[in-house]
Amino acid sequence: SDAKVMEDGSLWIKMSRSKHKEMMEEMSDSIKESFNELIEGEDTPYIKDIRTNNGYKEVEVYVDRAGYENAFDFSGFTILLSVGFYQTFQGEEVELHLKYVDADTDEIIEESFLQEE
SS3 for 3? Predict the structure, then answer.
């Protein structure tokens, strides 16, 4: 119902709780769609599944290890952008614990932590 640019350049937006909830549900659906595109995508055939917690602060990407290790992978960037926007609009600091997990052995291949300061 109202918006203004703050002195620091950030944007302040006023909306009803119901509208915010609706927007967050749409963003969550968009994240799930984006993750499904990674799972089903021709460029990322090694991604077998993506699992998250409710706030998208933890994301586990289950992969075919050989395919993942031989790929030039940008899926982490896609995941970070998706969950970063979600967390920002939720009014939270961006935080992500991203794990790439061998789908056959459950061994963690690679993991990273991002926390906005």
Answer: strand
The separation between the first and the last C-alpha atoms of the chain, rounded to the nearest angstrom, is 30
Question: What gap in Å lies between CA 114 and CA 88, rounded to an integer?
Answer: 14
- Residue 17: burial class (beta carbons within 10 Å; 0-12, 13-18, 19+): exposed
Instruction: Measure the CA angle with vertex 33, ends 30 and 37; round to 5°.
Output: 140
Contact 68, 109 (CB under 8 A): yes
pTM over 0.85: yes
Output the pLDDT for position 82: 93
Cα angle value 29/34/35 (rounded, 5°) = 100
